[in-house]
Amino acid sequence: MPQDERDLLAPVNAAILLARALVHAATAGDAARYTEVVDRARYCQLLASRLRLPLSVAHRVDLGAWLSGLEGQEEAKRRLVQQHHLEPMLYPAEATSSAQSVEAQILSLVRFYQDLRKRDPAIRNAFRTIQKHLDRDWASSPEQRRMTRCFVRVLRDEAFLLRAHPAAGKILIVDPEEAVSPVLAPTLAAEGYDVRVAHDAPAALKMVSQTPPDLIVCDLDLPLVNGIQFCRQIRENPQTARITFVVASDKKSKVTTRNCLREGIDDVLTKPIDQEMLFLRLKRYMARPEAHEGPAVEAHPEGGVAGSLSEMSFADLVQMVTASAKTMTLAVTSKDKKGEVVVVNGEVVHAAVGDQEGEQAFYEMMRWEEGDFVTRHSGECAKRTINAPVMSLLMEGARLADESGAGPS
Length: 409
Hints:
Shape: globular
Largest sheet: 6 strands, antiparallel
Strand content: 5-15%
Number of helices: 17
Number of strands: 11
Number of domains: 3
Structural class: alpha/beta
């Protein structure tokens, strides 16, 4: 990072450290309140980063989030707010303009989500429901709805990466149309289900033999082997006989429904499938004792989780781990290159790609758009090659990638 930019951010960084100390003192003896402020600052920081805001704005968001937790210390709070011109963020009612700054919107969104969690703790991992609440009760413009989608993606990614929630269940969709133009699968996946799609019964049967799902949603009029015949094959095998089996048909016939139920099919849905109704029924399907025999996101043998850089970029991966103050090693591969990043208590302390180490290795991995990652828990790092703050690393890596003409992953 250029020296002039570091000089510009130094006062904000110092204020953030002071605000953290003041919040810690103000919440002494109230662990729940302190955790709430820490979570608020983390979510604000993650959202600002995911929105690709300038580093100066991201730091102001971080500072404002910490200052929002300074209840009972109004004088100290006002002084820091005035010094860093955060009045529109912390005191929007006193703002001269009716337009909310992006900093104020981020803080407002995160606080709304936290209030939602207080009213309904069970909503934590119901990402589709959270999205609905945010869009209906918080967002009032297309820009704000874009922000809510970005925030829900942050929540999903954090939950996946840190294994904060069990999988909702494993679902196999057998439908040639879905295999070509997925509609239902992405919606189910966004809600936390492990979803696979097969274009016909033989392909589906092979998938079932490899990894039995909790639920099969099958088109009635399949090629080669229809839905009823496929259900018979599933029921004849003792290893798969108890899998919940649902068919979808565009035939609204009572005779068809009776025939399906007579053959051991658990439910019949009418196409096009009403997604709201399906989600209501999923709660009943997944409540069966045989469901949830294992997590969809399985633990990696080394104690972490594995994923793809095409689904979670390197920058977002690092941001998630550091914002949650974790200690772990990220092993990253892209084509024939291998790298690793060591994070200790939320701080990046080491990076290596081949013989290259330190910041340059970190910036190299930021250019990787394809590849895989594995996280594993680790202790203290014996070797330190990086001393820069993580936000500085991410912003400098993005700048270098832009200059080279290759966007960061």
